[in-house]
């Protein structure tokens, strides 16, 4: 039986693992985090699903994980430290165990990019958060800052606006989020924008008390008082274990339209892949496509 390794337990990886197992492949899913679903696990409400009702990212992840287990997917609670190409594919997990699958689907996603400013690491858990659903309640009745202009930033701001006194969005450029999100955030009376600006320092003592910002055009510096900061300025692909021969110049994995990398035995889906559109439904669909491609190409 053909053995398929899926690296990553986000929605793309879970979809690939479940579908490949249903197609009769022996599937092992590697995931080091106890929270399946990847970055989507903290999304309060997933848009674009073709089924009625409202679902959180965690709801979807739990459903896909249960289905994967029913389809006999083997779950290994470890990340991958190294992927080696050669006559035989070799994966070394974080416990130094080796695996030799016939095909690999990389769905390791991306990690939220850090601001890289003073105070960022110091105030994690003391005002700096990347999960409005998890931590928004701690800031009830207070002012918070969200920085970023994509879907994730606006989604977080929408969740926070229901609980906090005011949300201040600091954006370097116009919003890049979906039109629906932009319209919804514009309708919130307790959300205001600070344009053409970036955070240069996080201020505080026992916890966050404000942020220092710089206008990107004039260079003018000013401080904004807040009790919390939610930075969402994009992601960095989780490809530290991937051979450089499979990477694009951006650090993402390079694929053709069929999701195959320069080594046809390795496919990539979701946020780790160059050219990924950023849509949750698209990530799940890519997982299914990769599973079908593996079933078609590898008749072992």
Explained architecture:
The protein is an alpha/beta fold and about 300 residues long. It has 2 domains: about 5-110 and about 235-295, FAD/NAD(P)-binding domain (3-Layer(bba) Sandwich); about 130-230, 3-Layer(bba) Sandwich (FAD/NAD(P)-binding domain). Helix content is about 20%, strand content about 25%. The chain has 6 helices and 17 strands. The protein has helices spanning about 10-20, 55-70, 130-135, 150-160, 180-185, 280-295, and strands at about 5, 25-30, 75, 80-85, 90-95, 100, 105, 110, 145, 165-170, 190-195, 195-205, 210-215, 220-225, 230, 235, 265-270. The strands form 5 sheets. Strands 3-2-1-7-17 form a 5-stranded parallel β-sheet, with helices on one face. The chain has a 4-stranded parallel β-sheet with strand order 11-10-9-15, covered by helices on one side.
Sheet of most strands: 5 strands, parallel
Shape category: elongated
Which structural class fits the helix and strand makeup? alpha/beta
Q: Give the integer mean of the pLDDT values.
A: 92
User: Distance between termini?
Assistant: 6 Å
> Quick one: how many beta strands?
17
Strand order of the largest sheet: 3-2-1-7-17
Class of the largest domain, according to the CATH hierarchy?
Alpha Beta
Q: Per DSSP, what share of the residues sits in E-state strands of 2 or more residues?
A: 25-35%
Please provide the ordered H/E string of secondary-structure elements: EHEHEEEEEEHEHEHEEEEEEEH
Regarding quaternary structure, how should these chains be classified?
Answer: single chain
Radius of gyration equals 21 Å
The number of helical segments is 6
CATH fourth-tier homologous superfamily of the largest domain: FAD/NAD(P)-binding domain
**CATH topology tier name of the largest domain:** FAD/NAD(P)-binding domain
Number of domains: 2
Low-confidence stretches: none
Helix content: 10-25%
CATH architecture tag of the largest domain: 3-Layer(bba) Sandwich
GO molecular function: oxidoreductase activity
Protein name: Thioredoxin reductase
Pfam families: Pyr_redox_2
Keywords: Flavoprotein, Oxidoreductase
């Amino acid at each position: 039986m053909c053995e398929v390794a899926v690296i990553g337990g986000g929605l793309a990886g879970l979809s690939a693992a479940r579908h490949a197992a249903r197609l009769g492949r022996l599937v092992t899913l590697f995931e080091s985090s106890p929270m399946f679903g990847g970055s989507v696990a903290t999304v309060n409400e997933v848009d674009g699903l073709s089924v009625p009702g409202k679902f959180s990212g965690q709801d979807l992840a739990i459903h896909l994980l249960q289905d994967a287990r029913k389809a006999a997917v083997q779950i290994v609670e470890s990340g991958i430290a190294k992927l080696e190409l050669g006559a035989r594919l070799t994966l070394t997990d974080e416990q130094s165990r080796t695996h030799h699958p016939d095909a690999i689907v990389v769905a390791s996603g991306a990690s939220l990019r850090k601001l890289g400013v003073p105070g960022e690491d110091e105030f994690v858990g003391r005002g700096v958060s990347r999960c409005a659903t998890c931590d928004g309640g701690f800031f009830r009745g207070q002012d918070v800052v969200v920085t970023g202009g994509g879907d994730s930033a606006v989604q977080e701001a929408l969740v926070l606006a229901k609980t906090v006194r005011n949300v201040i969005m600091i954006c370097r450029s116009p919003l890049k989020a979906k039109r629906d999100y932009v319209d919804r955030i514009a309708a919130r009376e307790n959300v205001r924008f600070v344009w053409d600006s970036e955070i240069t320092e996080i201020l505080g003592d026992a916890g966050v008390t404000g942020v220092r910002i710089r206008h990107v055009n004039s260079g003018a510096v000013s401080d904004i008082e807040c009790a919390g900061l939610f930075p969402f300025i994009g992601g960095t692909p989780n490809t530290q274990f991937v051979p450089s021969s499979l990477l694009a110049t951006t650090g993402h994995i390079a694929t053709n339209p069929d999701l195959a990398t320069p080594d046809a035995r390795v496919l990539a889906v979701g946020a780790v892949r160059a050219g990924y559109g950023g849509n949750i439904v698209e990530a799940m669909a890519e997982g299914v496509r990769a599973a079908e491609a593996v079933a078609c190409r590898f008749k072992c």
